[in-house]
């Protein structure tokens, strides 16, 4: 059974150990050609090893999250409606033209 993600996302401030681990894992993930795929199979290793197929876009976002954490930046996962207009995004200070990072990292990083 899948667990539901709570709507009240918490900000995560990385410890020094977290930042070091994020630096190494983001470096290793960055070697994969994620921009050429629509999905990626990842393997979760715990009591029950399981392979899961996820959208490559989600893994790219995760890579950006790790990169922010590796720099010691606090991160928060948030959502916004895909119906937001470019004007609305601009009014809250986000412009894709001037940002190479995803919306979430730019706004909350």
Structure, described:
- The protein has one domain.
- The protein is built from four helices and two strands; from the N terminus they run H-E-E-H-H-H.
- The C terminus is likely disordered.
- It is globular, with a radius of gyration of 15 Å.
- Helix 1 packs across helix 2.
- Strand 1 and strand 2 form a beta hairpin.
- A two-stranded antiparallel sheet has the order 1-2.
Helix and strand succession?
Answer: HEEHHH
Side-by-side strand order of the widest sheet: 1-2
> Could you state the oligomeric state of the chains shown?
single chain
Shape: globular
Largest sheet: 2 strands, antiparallel
* Number of DSSP-assigned strands: 2
* Arithmetic mean of pLDDT: 77
- What count of structural domains? 1
How far apart, in Å, are the first and last alpha carbons? 31 Å
Could you write a compact summary of the structure shown?
The chain has four helices and two strands, in the order αββααα. By secondary structure, it is an alpha+beta fold. The protein has helices at 16-30, 56-70, 86-91, 103-108; strands spanning 39-44, 50-55.
List its salient traits.
single chain, 109 residues, alpha+beta, 4 helices, 39% helix, globular, disordered C terminus
């Amino acid at each position: 059974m899948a667990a539901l993600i709570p709507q009240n996302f918490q900000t995560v401030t990385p410890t020094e150990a977290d930042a070091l681990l994020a630096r190494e894992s983001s470096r290793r993930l960055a070697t994969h050609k994620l921009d050429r795929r629509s999905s990626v199979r990842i393997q979760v290793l715990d009591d029950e090893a399981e392979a899961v197929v996820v959208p490559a876009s989600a893994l790219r976002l995760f890579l950006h999250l790790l990169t922010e954490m590796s720099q010691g930046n606090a991160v928060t996962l948030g959502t916004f409606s895909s119906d937001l207009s470019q004007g609305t995004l601009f009014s809250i200070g986000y412009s894709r033209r001037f940002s190479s990072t995803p919306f979430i990292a730019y706004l909350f990083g």
